[in-house]
Amino acid sequence: MSTYALSNAHFVLPGRVMDDGYLTVVDGHFGSWQAQEPACEIVDCGGRWVAPGFVDTHIHGFYNHATTDCDAEGINISSAELVRRGTTSWIPTTFTEAPESIRAACAAIAEADEVRGAEFMGARIQGIYLEGPFFTQKHVGAQNPAFLIDPAYDLYADWQQAAGGRIVKSALAPEHDGSIEYISALAAEGIVTSIGHSDATFEQALAAVNAGATCFTHTYNGMRGLHHRDPGIVGCAMVTPETYAEVIADGHHVMPAAVEALVRAKGWDHVVLITDCLGCGGMPAGEYMSGGLPVVMRDGACYLRDGSSLAGSVAVMCDVVKNVYDWNIVSAEQAIRMGTEVAARSAHIDDRCGSIVPGRHADFVILNNDLTLAETYLGGVRVPLSE
Fold this sequence. Notes:
This protein is α/β, with parallel strands linked by helices. Helices cover 26% and strands 29% of the residues. α1 (72-83) packs across α2, α2 runs parallel beside α3 (153-162) and α8 (317-326) packs antiparallel against α9. The model has no long low-confidence stretch (mean pLDDT 95).
């Protein structure tokens, strides 16, 4: 592959944004940023933003394919469509299902990752996220209540074997028996545990954090809320400074003022923008299946068909990043970092994606000044955007 350098851009680098200079791309990998013009082809970015490709750490599928389909080809179709929308890395996320179904989903994701050739143009699979089945009935949301169980390390170990070691994150309700032991065991292996779909008290959530839990699953949604005499899980998320709080900033799941309150409480650098996108993301409005449950997509959101709950979003990362900027909650730079380096750091995958670092795959986006997506590059190669 050729060597070229990007110029005339706001470069979102690990240390700070650099508003001049040149960023080299060498054989599909990032070179270094430098002030002097290098002796190679120069690509003028027109004064726009050059940022790491977006990292979606909580997403169930896309373009009519979901992890619950247990279909490696479908996972790779999702990947190919996601990268056309600026997401260059993702963590396919499972649902609450029977243990054998979760195992099959993990195996299919692993297969999708393994069968890719060097020329495959799709968002890179950076791990697997187990969203369930260790949840509570009261806040089950769009998870299937038929398969709720207590945490069990042996189940995780079986799923991890099927995943080829790709599981990086597991969510649970900490009021379950065995939760503290499960969290501690996973923490010892460097696996993130996340608190969600839970009616835990503040004290129970704090005990989980003290045992090694470091994340909160789609904060506000599917959890005991904040009350001045019962701070709940939301309160725990807000006052534990080293934890990370996911948030679905699609404008349906959490209102802008609530997103702002979370950002002010934790700091933008510990709030993780996610989509929680379902397999029907990228498709027309209508009826679909999600996690074994019938859902209806309408007006830019997805609901259980019985109307009892939001089921998940149909947003992509470039949408939620732009939203928190448009809502005047954070600066453009902060919004970008929340959807890239903060997301990667929260899932312990920041050693491979989320930042522009020499030697890494040159996965990046070029954004207009209003943070709309202009171009996506994967491995230094420009990807056609979705129409």
